[in-house]
Amino acid sequence: TLLDQECINPTSYSSQLEDSGCDVSSDYAFDSLGIASDVHQSEHNVNTSKQWLERVLPLNLCTMSKEKSLTAPVQFLQHLLEIRKLSEGGILQADFRELENDSLTICDSVSQLLDGLTVFYSNPTFPFSSFLTEAVCVLVSLITDTKLSNHVLKKCFKKLEEFEKNLIQIILRTGSVNRFQALHALSHTLILLGRNSILRKSLISLLLPEVRQFAEQLLQAHQLQAKYDITQYENIFPLCMILEQLLQNQAEERNVSSSEYDEEGKIKFLKSLDQIILHLSDEFPLFSLYLWRVSVLLNSAQTA
User: Fold this and answer.
1) pLDDT digit string, tens, across residues 63-73
2) What is the DSSP string of 254-278?
């Protein structure tokens, strides 16, 4: 399906990217010169193997442990979605009204799934495993299902909103050399969550103050001719792109009214924004362009 293809894309994208880091350890540099004696070479091989085992094995075991913790909730929710599809086609009779009376298992599974995904994204390993992609697809299918989504949102909205907040903070704070692979996957996941109109509204409300706050901080640094954090500057662009995409998606839905926006958050974001864009446009043209495009989308929704 189209949803499955969209879920798979980030994995294939990330797997094509190579590690840009370089091994500049003293052991490697010493060995590459060909100076070490046979005895030293043997000691070097033993030490290198030991260091490799100490460094790699815990990482692999940690990854396996992460996937194992996600297996049960993912499988349960997959089975629930399959039952839902079979019941819709008339192949199986199932009364989903009982979910209102017995929802503990579903809520626990969703909570475990969100916690597991947060752990994955907090300390990602490349390339992303197919299991991570599968887990994201299950989550998106659950929140976009016509019958199950309302129940899940009713019981798990706070947990889902907490998950959104966590992913946004991970995007803002990540500083690794190869973080752009992770940023791409995180952005894609948030956009997929925005397929649900309620979660999209929540996401927009969370993103607006983050982008506005950074714009004000950047303006202050610019006016004082002070240094700014280049990593934070680079990390703000995924949030701008997510925000723009969500606003575009919302504008394309005919049944969305301007009242569904967070009016207070929108007013705060737009206040004196033209002046901020004007002052930043020369030195930060791309960021200023994103601010302007977001403001246009917000204003067009207001007049719609």
Assistant:
1) 556 677 788 99
2) TT--GGGS-HHHHHHHHTTHHHHHH
135-155 exposure pattern, b = at least 16 Cβ within 10 A, e = fewer: bbbbbbbbbebeebbebbbeb
Find the angle CA(138)-CA(241)-CA(168) to the nearest 5 degrees: 60
Contact call for residues 228 and 221 (beta carbons, < 8 A) = yes
Phi, psi torsion values for 93, nearest 5 degrees: -95, 125
- Quick one: which of 243, 236, 226 has its CA closest to 173? 236
pTM for this structure?
A: 0.76
* Three-class SS state of 175: coil
Q: How far apart are CA 287 and CA 195, in angstroms?
A: 25
C-alpha to C-alpha distance for 187 and 207, rounded to whole angstroms: 12
Q: Cβ(292)–Cβ(275) under 8 Å?
A: no
Task: Categorise residue 90: left if φ over 0, alpha if ψ from -120 to 50, beta otherwise.
Answer: left
Query: Is the pLDDT reported for residue 38 higher than 70?
Result: no
